[in-house]
Write the structure tokens for this entry.
Amino acid sequence: MVHILKNLKKGIINENPVFILLLGLCPTLAVSTSIDNAFGMTAAVMFVLISANIIVSLIRGVTPDRVRIPVFIVIIATLVTIVDLTMKAFIPELSKSLGIFIPLIVVNCIILGRAEAFASKNTLADSVADALGMGIGFGIAITIISFFRQLLGTGEITIFGTHVFSAPGLFDNPMSVFILPMGAFLVLGCLLATLRYMGAIESG
Amino acid sequence: MDNLFSIFIMMALVNNFVLAKFLGLCPFFGVSKKLSSAVSMGIAVIVVMFAASVVSWLLFYQLLVPFGITYMRTAIFILVIASLVQILEITIRRTNVNLYNALGIYLPLITTNCAVLGVTFINVDQAFNLAETIVSALGAGVGFTLVLAIMSGIREKLDLADVPKAFKGIPVAFLVAMLLGIAFLAFGGMV
């Protein structure tokens, strides 16, 4: 039980995939224009990550070592196709705004990385805990980034159509650069520097 | 002809893969510390993008569309890229050892480069014909290499600069990427 909790915590804090390992940057930066997108992306990544870790962990005894990477890729691609078609059918709007980044989950380094580095060597329970931790860590990171981008770029925070609050002054004159692609680089760069300054992560 | 040229400019500059579409960020931050390795990586990406786009285009229109199984494209395209990279690696190793030593270590990384898979999806989504597909793949690759080379040139100088401690390394690279992105916005008027 103890090391299950440790595996869970590892992904969220010590080895946060986005802030510490700098993996999976493409979807993190591309879709973090609104909190809705961040939640949608997190859900899609979580599903693929957990299912891939479960399957890879279950077949770890029977997969020949030499073909393990192609096997992992096929498993992940199948799971991503399931997510892609499901989202297109049930939440077409979200699927449209995430666009090409849903099929591109296939090449998300976090997922292949966890399958190769963790699930192919560990038990089912540990692998699920690892996937959950990594997924939550990814979700927290992308939500923080999109919170700042949405707040500074539009001046208000709405989650799935529900208005949460708007910042006085900013709402009339939003800094739309934060919604543009450059804003993502700016926000993540400053976040990383702040985390380092506070000593939350090591400078490298 | 006019159309092909505008697709090239569009893919290379206006909708630059790295700065405007956020594709291929891992090599962009990982391999941009030295100019020479950045250029090698860029050339390897151009070659793989070209080959992957042509093969995936042919498979999509000759195999997936006639059989009505276009939902298989994610799985098929990633397998195409993975096997192409393997074939390229073996071919280069057998034929040109110097080239292999220069490009070899970057080739396996390209399999999980989302820029390569991204360009094959974009070609199919935009319903490009074969000529347009080739031009768009080359444009995307050239744009990627261009930005990677600029970035590595800046980062070589940045190592000597007096950057606040918390910003050293990756955070300041993000800020440089932001400034590059603003510069590339200017190309928006070209098409």
Chain B has a mean pLDDT of 86. Chain B touches chain A through 43 residues (CB under 8 Å). The CA atoms of residues 26 and 84 of chain B lie 20 Å apart.
